[in-house]
Amino acid sequence: MRRGGNCSWLGAEIPLSWEFFSVIKDELWLFLIPAGFAVIMLALFLEEVGFFLRHVPYSRRRCLYLWILGMYPVFGLTSIIALYVPRSSSLCNFIASLYHSITLLKFMGLITDFFGGKARMLEILAGEQVSPDPFPCCCCCCLPMIAINRTSLGWMMAAVLQLSVVRTILFFVTLVLWTDEQYDYGDMDSANPNMYMNAIIGVSTFLSFYGHLLFYKATKKALPGYGLRAKFVCIIVVLVLCGLQSGILETMEALEVVPCTPPFSVLMRSQLIYHYSVIVEMFCICLFARHTFRKVEPSLEEGFGLEERPPRGMLVEKAVQTEDVVPLRENPWPGWGGTGVSNPDCNSDSSEDSLCKIEHAALDRFPFPLQPRRQETVRPENVTDESGILEMPKLTVNADINVVETRDVTVFGEGPFLFQHDNAPMHKVRSIQKWFVEIGVEELDWPAQSPDLNPIEHLWDELERQLISCKLSLDDLQAVCRQERLHCKELQVNKHNIDDYEVEYLCDYKKSKEQELYLVKWKGYPESANTWEPRKNLKCKKLMTQFHEDMEREMRRQKRRTTCPKRLDKDVAWILVQKAKLRQRLQRWEADLNKTRNHPGRIFVLNEVDLDGPPRDFTYINTYKVGEGIVLNEMAVGCECKDCFSDPVGGCCPGASLHRLAYTDKGQVRVRAGEPIYECNTRCSCGPDCPNRVVQKGIPFDLCIFKTENGRGWGVRALQHIKKNTFVMEYVGEIITSDEAEKRGHLYDRQGATYLFDLDYVEDVYTVDAAHHGNISHFVNHSCNPNLQVYNVFIDNLDERLPRIALFSTRPIRAGEELTFDYKMQVDPVDAESTRMDSNFSLVGLPSSPKKRIRVECRHLSTEAINQSDSKLSTMAKTKELSKDVRDKIVDLHKAGMGYKTIAKQLGTGWG
């Protein structure tokens, strides 16, 4: 069956452009109308590009939207080209059809993106089933239901994808056959391949429609309110129109339904009808799609139990749970001090001094720092001899990027860090030199003076790297990763959350036409991507509650009205942003503290008073850090007890030192302050549940480091009820000699704070310095009415010059009560009142106080300690035996702040 005869003035062939315009010059205005529609569609698309660039800072979602909405101007432009250049009709049809086939797949990707990724979609749709009957056809109504799983979704996507593959293959086959004059467009005769190709395209289009329909039916119930039906219609209508229209017109042409009237042939007339109608139809659908795709999608229902925020519109807070402390990240390089804790202040909000390392050859436009790794963590390609110096691992675009929050030390070994200087100007800046001093890095001048470093004298040239100043924060790095589709473990950007869209904190607030708007800082995006979002879009209730509490507190502080204003002042908004950033830094510090601790009690951090962040030069440790020249001798023997409390052998470990067991069966101390405590050690036969193992188990209670409201700095409060005589914490720090303590004491006095604790149980030889290395006891404040008491404890080391300092409760402590102990401060007798200690005095000190601060003493005032403390008191102690009452009186006077010289004078007046 062939097409109708030729009635054209131009012949049976498709005319050229100049021939076409010469014929229609009197009716040219009719063909300018579709051109106007095409130009309007293009202008609308460009406006939509600007709209989505402004309102969707989420790169993948934005690309999917623009790809789908770009389908209509593509059809319009290709059809107008086919109208004006008739012989390009086949090529234009192929381009538009191929673009539309890919758009079908992109639309499925958009729906998947609404779920937060394919894995999350499978999790939500698990157990769901979909009917296989394709409306309006009911021939499949008896088939079994299709279960939604990875396989079935894969088949649906394959059904959609095959249309673009089939169309591409058939187009090239058509070109080959047409070149060999074996293909005639529009000829429906059985001898012409055109009929079979149209049949194949029809079947392929139906399969694509069927797969798309099943995918829509499977997902529409899980995404209520997303307008999937309207979006689905915008896509499928184009598929139906383009597929059916061309087939209907070819059939009408073959059946001579299309009239054969000059000046065009039947083939040319059907082609003009098709492209003219496509432009008008696409213009109408474009207007509808523009309205549909601009609607804000709501959040997923809470019934799905989403813990991470799916994309656009699903704004969920990811908060740190109070029950389980979740560490933010693991530092793969357990660097300085053996703590394995990354510095929470580096690469954070104040990143002026942060440095990063660039691989110029591979990633010159990606300012990511590289991580120096130890041999057990990575297998470097080049390792020098036994010096333990490793080459930096090289970075490629496809590799995961190692990001650390510390600056790089380029040459390192198992022991102290060494820096081979290359005299580069960026390595001589003051911030780098200060940082080297702080972390104890030894610098080697250029050229290398050490024989071990001679093989890498030209280290920087070999590694092809250099240190440059980097002003990027973690948010900026995460944003670059997401925009460039790069996975980064250290930044917590992976394939599961690379498209996630999460509220980090709220920056500002305003009311507009009875609608509350919040300025949202998106996690992983820079502040330049902040957007105003209506209250109904935000599901982060905890963040909103915290934001309003901060806002009301700040407005009360500035004596403003506390009702919600229409717009916040800039200074109030700035304070709220700083508080949100501070809360993040404290959460990171809290996570690092809990990652470092080895005790069962958790640590929480809270600052609702000011904007002070974590201490910058403080490392959390669990046990003593031994200074240079000091040795802690381990125990050689232990007890042989099976039950140290009920059946001690030889008095157990305390009996071996001529003392009694210090604890009850419930682990509460029962000896008076001043008597030493001897616990079972690692050589003992008893198990970890032995009643004589208390201090060595670590802090048993949850504690909170909080900022005090009366100017005493940081403090510590109990989060659980603590019974009387219960172990609470241990005072740890760096053990140094008394001579070194004197040197540091002068420096600390100039700085206005001291954390020196003399270990003078027997003789004043060693001191604990908790200024830069310590545990939570570093933050415990002083009180003259304390609830903690100091005890000397010996476990694995029996050297009486090096006791462990344990703090036990002196009375029941309520949950929420601040923990304090007596610093035993000594004051100058400025007046009569100066002999009484200020209960609000903290370790940081008060600049205007007349009291003179000395080192904290660990005295329990045995007779030997009293004899060594003062010459006159020593003389009196040698001439007569001090009674228990006198000793107790000395303890009370010394606690009240009286010096030993004053005590000796009073002893000499006769009451002793």
Automatic annotation (TrEMBL):
Matching Pfam families: Chromo, DDE_3, HTH_SB, Pre-SET, SET, Solute_trans_a
Subcellular location: Chromosome, Centromere; Membrane; Nucleus lamina; Nucleus, Nucleoplasm
UniProtKB keywords: Acetylation, Biological rhythms, Cell cycle, Centromere, Chromatin regulator, Chromosome, Differentiation, Membrane, Metal-binding, Methyltransferase, Nucleus, Phosphoprotein, Repressor, rRNA processing, S-adenosyl-L-methionine, Transcription, Transcription regulation, Transferase, Transmembrane, Transmembrane helix, Ubl conjugation, Zinc
Domain spans labelled SET: 701-824
One GO biological process term: methylation
SUPFAM superfamilies: Chromo domain-like, SET domain
Presence of the UniProt keyword Isomerase in the record: no
Membrane topology, as annotated: Multi-pass membrane protein
Domain of life: Eukaryota
Protein name according to UniProt: Histone-lysine N-methyltransferase SUV39H1
Organism from which the protein derives: Coregonus suidteri
Organism placement in taxonomy: Eukaryota, Metazoa, Chordata, Craniata, Vertebrata
